[in-house]
Design brief:
Elements (H helix, E strand, L loop, with lengths): L1 H9 L8 E5 L11 H9 L8 E6 L7 H9 L4 E5 L9 H6 L14 H5 L9
Parallel strand pairs: 1-2, 2-3
Helix pairs in contact: 2-3
Length: 125
């Protein structure tokens, strides 16, 4: 997500104020696991007359996160990016709550061997 944030800033001229990035694994954001606090934190930082780019990493750490995501998704000035690494993220209940609002992308980590020599990983680069 940081690479895309850099792209937004460098190529699309998006300002720091337009980007809200929260990693819920970071203890600095521990209080944001409460959905009301997370939503209030984001809402007070939204710029009403500009597009806001919101990045929520490891969103499953927030209880009742689908309601927070849904509330942000319906705003016209919000571009929302959400990640999670938990089997609960793929549950049918969550898929129903987020129905029509998601673009799933499965990412597979790169091993040290793959990083050093892509040919050893079976990739055709």
């Amino acid at each position: 997500m940081e690479i895309y944030q850099d792209y937004l800033q460098k190529e699309m001229k998006v300002t720091n104020e337009q980007i809200i990035a929260i990693n819920l694994e970071d203890y600095d954001f521990y209080d944001m696991r409460d959905p009301k606090k997370l939503y209030a934190y984001i809402k007070e930082r939204l710029l009403p007359d500009q597009m806001n780019y919101i990045f929520l990493d490891e969103i499953q750490q927030c209880e009742d996160f689908p309601r927070v995501v849904d509330s942000l998704y319906i705003k016209n000035n919000v571009d929302l990016y959400v990640t999670g690494s938990n089997a609960n993220m793929l549950s049918s209940e969550i898929a129903t709550l987020l129905s029509g609002k998601q673009l799933f992308s499965i990412c597979i980590g790169i091993s040290w061997t793959s990083e050093r020599n892509p040919r050893l990983s079976g990739w055709n680069l």
